[in-house]
Amino acid sequence: MDLRLPSKVLEHIFSFVDSNEDRNSVSLVCKSWFETERLTRKRVFVRNCYAVTPAAVARRFPGMRSLTLKGKPHFADYNLVPDGWGGYAWPWIEAMAEKSPSLEELRLKRMVVTDECLEKIAASFKDFKVLVLTSCEGFSTDGLAAIAVACRNLTELELRECIVEDLGGDWLSYFPETLTSLVSLDFSCLDSEVKLSDLERLVSRSPNLKSLKLNRAVSLDALGSLLRLAPQLVELGTGSFSDKLDQEAVSKLAQVFTELKELKSLSGLWDVLPEYIPLLYSVCPGLTSLNLSYATVQMPDLVELLSRCSNLQKLWVMDLIEDKGLEAVASSCKELRELRVFPSGADVDETNVAMTEQGLVSVSEACPNLESVLYFCAQFTNAALATIAKTRPNLKCFRLCVIEPFAPDHKTHQPLDEGFKAIVESCKDLQRLSVSGLLTDKAFEYIGTHGKKLRMLSIAFAGDSDLMLHHLLSGCESLNKLEIRDCPFGDTALLENAAKLETMRSLWMSSCGVSFGACKLMSEKMPKLNVEVIDEHTPETRPDSSAVEKIYIYRTLAGPRLDMPEFVWTIHKNPEIGVSHLAIE
Amino acid sequence: MAYEKVNELNLKDTELRLGLPGTEQVKEEQDVSCVRSNKRQLQSDNEEESTTPPAKTQIVGWPPVRSYRKNSNNNNSVSYVKVSMDGAPYLRKIDLKTYKNYAELLKALENMFKFTIGEYCEREGYKGSEVVPTYEDKDGDWMLVGDVPWDMFSSSCKRLRIMKGSDALALDSAL
C-alpha cells in the first residue's frame, strides 16, 4: 500500500507553512517533501549572497516571487569593509531575469546595486511590485527613474539609508499617471528636491498609500499640502521641519495633523524647531513607532512629546534625551519594546554627559515589554547591568556601546565582566549581544557558559587572550554570526574550533592577531568555508607568521567567488600553496 | 608608521595596539584601525587637557555609528562647540548656529570672557589684540578664526580656543 500523500495534498498542506525556518525543516523530511516544498516556496531568503549561487537558487525554487538578499558583512556599516569588496546584485538580477521572470519582490541589504541592475529589473519582471534597498550603494537617481517609468504595478519603493548618486529630483516625475497602486514610498535618503506638484499628483492618485517617507528637501509647507491629500497614512517620514511659517500656516498645519487618524509611525523631523513640536501632540497617543534619531530636540521638549506617547513600542532617539528624558519615557511609555539611543556627538568628548547608565536602568525597571536595546553611552557600571538583567530577563537583543574603548565600571574601576555575566545569566532568550567597555577573558567565559540562545555577537577592544575566542566558539551553541575587532587573540582558538564555523553563517575578525599561516591552514582543513583575507597591503610574499588585517569566513556551497578584488585573498588564488611545510601543533 | 613625539610623550606607550603578550607585531602598517592625528604644533603646555592623552586617537569605524547617520548629524540645526580661554577656570559652550557672521561671534565671545579683540586682517591676523581666537577644524588642525568664509568655518569648527598673552604673540610672529 502506498502510504505517501499525493503531492497535491502536500502542496495544500504546505501552503499553510509560512515561516522559512519551518519550510527548511519540512524540506529535510524526505525527497518528496523536499520536492513539493521547493516547488511551492514563494519567499526566498538568502542571508549571505556568496553562500549559494543565483543559478542554484533559481533552479531550486521555480515558483519564487520574493527574493531577499544580504551582501556585505555587518561591519561594513562602520567602514571596516573596503570599497570594492563585493556584494554585487547584478549576477542575481541577471539570473532571475532569465530563470524567474515572475519575480515580484526584491529586497537587498548592503549590496552594490547599479543603474544597470535597476534597468534590468524594470525590463525583465513584468509584474514587479516591491523594491526595498537597505544600506545599498552604486546607483543613481537615473536608475530610480527606470523603475518608476516601467513598473506598472509597483506597490513599494523604499530606499533606506542608501548612498545614491543624486542627479536631481526628476526621477519622481517618471511615475506614469496610470500608476495608482503605490502603498509605500521612501526616498528619505536622497538630497535633491523633487517637483512638489508631481509628488502631490502621485499621492492623490494612490488611494492605497500607507507609508510615505520624504526627504529633507521637502519643506514644512509642502508637507502640509501632502498630508491633506493622504490623511490615511499609517507611516510618515517628514522632511525638514524648520521653515518659518506664519501663524495661519501653523494652525492649518496643526489641523492637518489632527486629521491623521491612522498614523502609527513617525520619523524624519530634520532640523525641527522647538516651537513646532506641539504640532505633533495630536498624533502622539496613536504612535507605536517614533524615530527622533535625526531630530536635534532637547530634553525638555522631548519630555513634553514623549509623555504623550502612551502607546509607543519603538523609540529611536539621540542622547540629547538625557537621563531625565528617559525617566519620562519610563513613566509614560509602558508599552515600550525597543529603545535605541544614538550619540549626538562624534566622539567621547562630545558625548552628552547628562545621559548615563541610569537612563537605561530607569527604562528597564519600568517597561515590562522592553526586549530590544541599543544604547550608546559614555560610561557604565556593573551594578547598572545587574539591575537591567534582573528587571528585564525577557531581553532578546542587548547592544551596549560604551564609547570609550576599555572603559571600566566608572564607580568601581573594575572590568564589566560581572555586569555582562548578569545579563547572559538572566536573559535566557538573548539572541543578540554587543559588548563594550573593559572586558577580560572572564566575560567571555560567562557568555560561553550562559549564552546558549545567542545567535549574533559583536565584540570590540576586549579580552586578553585566545581563551576569549575559545569560550565563545566552544560554548555558544546557537552562534550564527560573530564579529570581532581589535581583540588580542591569535591562531590557536580559531584552529581548534574550526569545525564550529561550518555551523555558523559567518565570522568577521579585524585587527586581531590571526596569522596568514592560520588562514591558509583553515582554508585547507575546511573546504566548505570561504576564508577571505582582506588586507589592503598586498605584499608579493606574505610571511605565514604575519598577522592579517581582516578576515571574513563564511560557509558556502558556491565555492570561491569569482568577483574578488585585488585586496581579497582566498587560497584559491594560490592553490599551489600547501601547508605541509607548516608545523602543525 | 612612525609615531611622533608629541608633548614629550612617546605615543607607543599609549597606542591601541593589541597583540598577544610577548609577540612582536611584524609590520607596523598593520595597525590600520588606529589612525593618529599628528598635527598639533600649536598646543601649549598649559592646555587644560594635559592630563588626558594629548593627541586624539581617531579610530576607524568607532564609535559604531553608520556613516550615513554621522553625515546627517553634521547638518543639524544646533552646533554646540566648546570654548576655552587660556587662564579661565572652566569652559563654555556656544551654539554656532545662532551667529550669522564673525562679527557676531567675536562680540559674543568678548562679552562671555570679558576681553577685547582687535580688527582681523588677512595679512596679519589679529595683530595688536591681547587675545587671538583659534579653532580646531574637522581634520584636527588648529586654525585662526577669520581666514575662511563664515559658512565654511561654522560647518568645520569643532571647538574654539582663545589664546592669550605670550602664546598669542608667538602665533602672530609665526604668521
Automatic annotation (TrEMBL), chain A:
This is GRR1-like protein 1. It holds the Pfam family F-box_5. Its main location: nucleus. One of its GO terms (molecular function) is auxin binding. PANTHER family: F-BOX/TPR REPEAT PROTEIN POF3 (PTHR16134), GRR1-LIKE PROTEIN 1 (PTHR16134:SF50). The gene is LOC108844102. Pathway: Protein modification; protein ubiquitination. Residues 1-48 form the F-box domain.
Automatic annotation (TrEMBL), chain B:
Gene3D superfamilies: Phosphatidylinositol 3-kinase Catalytic Subunit, Chain A, domain 1 (3.10.20.90). Residues 22-58 are annotated as: Disordered. One of its GO terms (biological process) is auxin-activated signaling pathway. GO terms for cellular component: nucleus. Belongs to the Aux/IAA family. Homodimers and heterodimers. This is Auxin-responsive protein.
